[in-house]
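HOLO CASE FILE
Compound: 3-methyl-2-oxobutanoic acid
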Amino acid sequence: MENRISITDLKAKKKRGEPIVMMTCYDYPSARLLEDAGVDILFIGDTLGMVVLGYDSTIPVTMEEMLHHTKAVVRGSSRAHVLADMPFMSYQTSREDALGNAGRLLKEGGAQSVKLEGGVHVADTVRFIVDAGIPVMGHIGLTPQSATMLGGFRAQGRTAEKARRLLDEAIALEEAGCFALVLEAVPAPVAARISETLVIPTIGIGSGAECDGQVLVLHDLLGLYEGRSPRFAKRYADIGGDIRSALERFGAEVRSGAFPAEEHTYAMPEEELEAFLNGSRAESRTET
Ligand code: KIV
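Model generated. Tokens follow.
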């Protein structure tokens, strides 16, 4: 039995005032690196669709795709908490569909918990899933699956009334049984108020430093995604640039003959080589 970070450990971190580190993760090698770096939650987000699969939004992502990548992340980790996103239309159609799909992410995918987007209108679904024994993380503020309804990818809760509504949504999700809540693109003071009101941890993305943890999209942080990134997506590396320059050097060395060098090839005993060359039928072959 693996000893992974549990939802109780995550709640205890909030109590101790210890920030939770969450990062999106979609494959085996990244899972190994993220876990070595001490990331608490490896999150298979449906951003998978945009940063790995090349869709232009998260809408087309399927359950099968989420399961495929969740399994890889589970194989690449043993300590971190693995959280899987519920893709568009895997939980909106009915509570029963939502429970069935959440169950698949745990049973087949190997995740420890699931995340879904929405406020008061998903509270019943959350309760239904949690009552079946599946931990659920909520997600309010900018919810990319409903970006069209929200008028695009823009910050949420910027008037007193909308901020109050966000606080109400957060309370409703906590009461429905969520173990944590993502706050995306919410003004920092609003996120701070939500964080101090809730007992469960908040995980911010573009929502300021007062949240109980932070999450970013791995490909934004590494400089691996070339589409438009939001302003809150701080870039810590330029891995895309490193990959491009490594491949350009490889191509140039193949074309110039500099690669492979002797140290990249295998030798054979002299006498074996001689016997091979003498016995070879190559010289008796004629071109056709
Ligand atoms: O799918 C995702 O990557 C997310 C994060 C932006 C929190 O939901």
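CASE NOTES: Residues 239-256 form the longest helix (18 residues). The chain has a mean pLDDT of 94.
CLOSED: yes
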